[in-house]
Amino acid sequence: MNEFSRILELYEELLAKVKLQETEIVRMRKQIATLTKTIQGQAPEQDDQEAA
Q1: In degrees, to the nearest 5, what angle opens at C-alpha 12 toward C-alphas 8 and 14?
Q2: Which of 3, 30, 35, 38 could bridge to 51 as Cys pair (CB 3.0-4.6 Å)?
Q3: How far apart are CA 27 and CA 37, in angstroms?
């Protein structure tokens, strides 16, 4: 049972890392959308749903 517990622990760690990366990806997509609008001369919007 100890092996199973270790596997479960590793799985939970990996899942937490993946969730953090997903959050970071969403944040970067929003930044890219804002920068793209700025470069194109448009006023950036706070809640850009296209980036998500």
Answers
A1: 115
A2: 30
A3: 16
